[in-house]
């Protein structure tokens, strides 16, 4: 039997989502290092998982391998995305889109009605993903990124209601 194919991308991958666990942090930090110029440390993730009651972190697995992760803080009816990354070998296969859609769904089930994030002004790839999922740029945080003093775009999206979902 042939697997379904997404235009020119090869077989569609079937990701599995689950909450991030402390045991994942080693793999997560490796992905973080290949994805960001100022990666979060293991201690930062440890603190998020153990001490931050607003924080929710998801891991996406493909055939048992951690292919990406994303996190957010849900405060009242707003979700603030803290980070999202796909391991480089898995990029361009619609997995970032699946992951952000799942994060948005989790935000919705926790009562969030809007989602926000910051993104480097030069990170067109991520901006394209966010725009595809309904995010719009509403402003700029000047010099937000300390490594090169780059500005951040502030983006917001309304979260579509998912009344039929229970979790
Ligand atoms: C941004 C990131 C999460 C996207 O994940 P991905 O799995 O590669 O993206 P997807 O395959 O799901 O693509 C979804 C959309 O993103 C955009 N996109 C993805 N790759 C792109 C590329 N090479 N060029 C332009 N746009 C691109 C497109 O809008 C795409 O939709 P389309 O395929 O219908 O055009 C991934 O590139 C990544 O981890 N980057 C490093 C970390 C990072 O920058 N995180 C964001 C910080 S704010």
From TrEMBL:
It is an enzyme of class 2 (transferase). The keyword Ribonucleoprotein applies. Keywords: Acyltransferase, Ribonucleoprotein, Ribosomal protein, Transferase. It comes from the Bacteria. Its EC number is 2.3.1.266. This is Ribosomal protein S18-alanine N-acetyltransferase. The lineage of its organism: Bacteria, Bacillati, Bacillota, Bacilli, Bacillales.
